[in-house]
UniProtKB/TrEMBL annotation:
<keyword id="KW-0963">Cytoplasm</keyword>
<comment type="similarity">
    <text>Belongs to the NDK family.</text>
</comment>
<dbReference type="GO" id="GO:0004550">
    <property type="term" value="F:nucleoside diphosphate kinase activity"/>
</dbReference>
<dbReference type="GO" id="GO:0006241">
    <property type="term" value="P:CTP biosynthetic process"/>
</dbReference>
<comment type="function">
    <text>Major role in the synthesis of nucleoside triphosphates other than ATP. The ATP gamma phosphate is transferred to the NDP beta phosphate via a ping-pong mechanism, using a phosphorylated active-site intermediate.</text>
</comment>
<dbReference type="GO" id="GO:0005524">
    <property type="term" value="F:ATP binding"/>
</dbReference>
<feature type="binding site">
    <location>
        <position position="57"/>
    </location>
    <ligand>
        <name>ATP</name>
    </ligand>
</feature>
<dbReference type="InterPro" id="IPR034907">
    <property type="entry name" value="NDK-like_dom"/>
</dbReference>
<keyword id="KW-0418">Kinase</keyword>
<feature type="binding site">
    <location>
        <position position="85"/>
    </location>
    <ligand>
        <name>ATP</name>
    </ligand>
</feature>
<keyword id="KW-0808">Transferase</keyword>
<feature type="binding site">
    <location>
        <position position="112"/>
    </location>
    <ligand>
        <name>ATP</name>
    </ligand>
</feature>
<feature type="domain" description="Nucleoside diphosphate kinase-like">
    <location>
        <begin position="1"/>
        <end position="137"/>
    </location>
</feature>
<keyword id="KW-0067">ATP-binding</keyword>
<feature type="binding site">
    <location>
        <position position="102"/>
    </location>
    <ligand>
        <name>ATP</name>
    </ligand>
</feature>
<protein>
    <recommendedName>
        <fullName>Nucleoside diphosphate kinase</fullName>
        <ecNumber>2.7.4.6</ecNumber>
    </recommendedName>
</protein>
<keyword id="KW-0460">Magnesium</keyword>
Length: 137
């Protein structure tokens, strides 16, 4: 059984769709095995997105991610990484298929409602960035 890491980003928290997004995870067979709401610090957001440091959208991305609370969660299920990416839809909501989370809840390419790990290796790193093993059920 596989785990992935997910963030409900500040724009989705602000529009009151945490529960709607969690229902999509559950309908897709992804079990929420850890969860918490937090206000990221700038250092936390910069560390999380370190792979994008130096890119033109980095400062805007970090500014957005600290603009309000986020909800972080660990999702567990068969093929969890790929399955979560599928229900999220494309990074750019203009390209996201109808019925995906980003199609329904993104406001722009930066404010695209959710994050999901892109591989099993990044999932393990991202889970460890926010959760200790005893916080995962
Ligand atoms: P995420 O990592 O958030 O799940 P992703 O893997 O689909 O999304 P990445 O390429 O890792 O996309 O980019 C991380 C985030 O940075 C995107 O989700 C989006 O919020 C923002 N982003 C990516 N590319 C751009 C861009 N060209 N302009 C503005 N924001 C961008
Ligand atoms: Mg990514």
């Amino acid at each position: 059984i596989e785990r992935t890491f997910s963030i409900v980003k500040p724009n989705a928290v602000a529009k009151n769709v945490i529960g709607a997004i969690y229902a999509r995870f559950e309908s897709a067979g992804l079990k929420i095995v850890a969860a918490k709401m937090l206000q990221l610090t700038r250092a936390q957001a910069e560390g999380f997105y370190a792979e994008h440091q130096g890119k033109p959208f980095f400062d805007g991305l970090v500014g957005f991610m600290i603009s309000g609370p986020v909800v972080v969660q660990v999702l567990e299920g068969e093929d969890a990484v790929r399955r979560n990416r599928e229900i999220m839809g494309a990074t750019n909501p203009a390209n996201a298929l109808a019925g995906t989370l980003r199609s329904d809840y993104a406001d722009s390419l930066t404010e695209n409602a959710v994050h999901g790990s892109d591989a099993v290796e990044s999932a393990a790193r991202e889970i460890a960035y926010f959760f200790s093993e005893d916080e995962i059920c």
